[in-house]
User: Fold these one by one.
Assistant:
Number 1:
Amino acid sequence: PRKIIIDTDPGQDDAVAILLALASPDELDVLGITAVAGNVPLSLTQKNSRIVCELANKPHVKVFAGCDVPLKRKLVTAEHVHGKTGLDGPTLPDPTMALQDAHAVEFIINTLRNEPADSVTLCPLGPLTNIATALQTAPDIVSRIREIVLMGGAYFQVGNITPAAEFNIYVDPEAAEIVFKSGIPLTVLPLDVTHKALVTKPRNEAFRALGSHVGHAVAEMTEFFERFDKEKYGSEGAPLHDPCVTAYLIQPDLFTGRHINVEIETQGTFTQGMTVADWWGVSGRDPNSLFIGDINADGFFDLLTERLGRL
Ligand code: BDR
Ligand code: CA
């Protein structure tokens, strides 16, 4: 299995992404989960990460708390989407598993130094603060990372937190800039693809029909998450953003994209946090990422439902 570190700000969709990974041990070896401030403050994202591990019945997974504020800005959160706890929807018990003592950034650095070079993939599902801090603190790890596969950004679909910017990039654009300029192989799952992964009613019912604790909890999470998108975008179901990352790692042939240049806007008055994605190759700048544009949504939900059924 491929070794991964999931860097996350749960978030209902983060939770589903984590469940999918933990349900897929043949493909993915989750070395640890690192929490970052994003959808809700760090005190809640680290707690929610542990709630999700216990929901999956995997309390041995290591969870670390990371950065509680973006590199240079005040934290912007998204309770309007995810609710006050970040995991509103199901009623889940407080976690009993411990939080690890080490800081998330220290864990990321030590893991990359100790594991064979090119064997560890980073999977950021929230603002890129932990990842950028690790790259800045320990530049020697840059060449040891196999790949970064992240959820963030947008091109034709543009923004969800401002007209120009997607939430994860907007919250910490300076961190995103460090990651996109790092030269590390990058695969990006932007809003353009995640808004094609919609939890329609039959897909939601399929989660519930699993008849399990996990199936039920996921159905309730996606129902909660959907309220916002229905009102806001008239969407026929919640876009399952972050699970696109873990699904991509398990079954990449569900997705297609292009190698393009992406720069992060950190200055613009109206465009801070925008991913300036050169889809048509007009800039002459070298490609720095595989930007995913399409998904086989039925295949994705088949995979997800089948895997959740294993938990
Ligand atoms: C991203 O922002 C968060 O609200 C979601 O968890 C996802 O990672 C979508 O823009
Ligand atoms: Ca997230």
Number 2:
Amino acid sequence: LTRLYGPLTALSNVRVDVMSALVSFERVFEVLDLAPAIAERPGAREIPEGAAKVEFRDVHFRYPSASEVSLASLEDVASLDRAVNDEVLKGVSFTVEPGQMVALVGPSGAGKSTTAMLVSRIYDATSGAVLVGDVDVRDATLQSLHDTIGVVTQDSHLFHETIAENLRYAKPDATDQELWTALRRAQVGELVESLPEGLDTVVGERGYRFSGGEKQRIAIARLLLKAPSIVILDEATAHLDSESEAAVQRALAEALAGRTALVIAHRLSTIRDADQILVVDDGRVVERGTHDELVVTAGLYAELYRTQFAVIDSPAPHPTSPAPA
Ligand code: ATP
């Protein structure tokens, strides 16, 4: 996504509704924390509190064309139009049962991020339906959808504000005690304690600069405060140093525990733990099953395993992950 829309993300003052149609996954999800351009239907229903099932029923999707999102004056239109007319999802169906972890894997451009975005209704399916807690997301109130789903991406965004303010986006009435608990569970409590201003430390270019792994842990603290029943996680591809990596993994384990999770997975350890792996290729789920089931087939998963996952994890395996078979 960043590859395609990098230039557009620079337009930081573009109206929010246009942005949410175009800019990258992580900014829409995390900066606006789910403020889709999509309108709430009159008489929309609440998703029941704690609802944790996700279902895709024959979902087809094509991105709106540049003209549909009023960007005709931008120079990037030509490159946008290259991609927009094709169906990106071509009949995707799956169910994530409450408490399950489902991993999406597949080649670049296969449609994994798009699938994840449809759950939060950043866009609507062109046809078919996406259900959260048995409610079609088009019939759900945006607030209840927002409350049910939390997102952690590779590129976590923090505002140029204090740590406390950054955290209270998730829970405005959280006490300082709650903020500290979330920070500790997210493995960043000690670091914040060591800062002279503690929770009042201003974050960002003119403030305290957290590393990528630290920012991600603050974002995980935010998710823990929000306590959604469903988590969407875009797992990091970039390698952090091994200490940060281990801390991020511990924080993520806290974030995912007891929740339904849809993970765009890049780590063998995650994929091995998944209740179900969906192998996405060219907008379709081409294989599904557990690691043990899929690795013995001669399909795309087995190939990805050999060429990517085993290779990625083998030089420096996560301490808790078993060595590749
Ligand atoms: P990666 O692993 O590289 O992130 P992915 O499997 O997540 O890939 P998507 O990002 O969902 O794939 O992209 C699926 C297809 O949709 C690609 O062809 C991509 O170029 C296209 N695409 C993604 N975002 C948009 C957008 N906002 N507008 C138009 N096309 C898009």
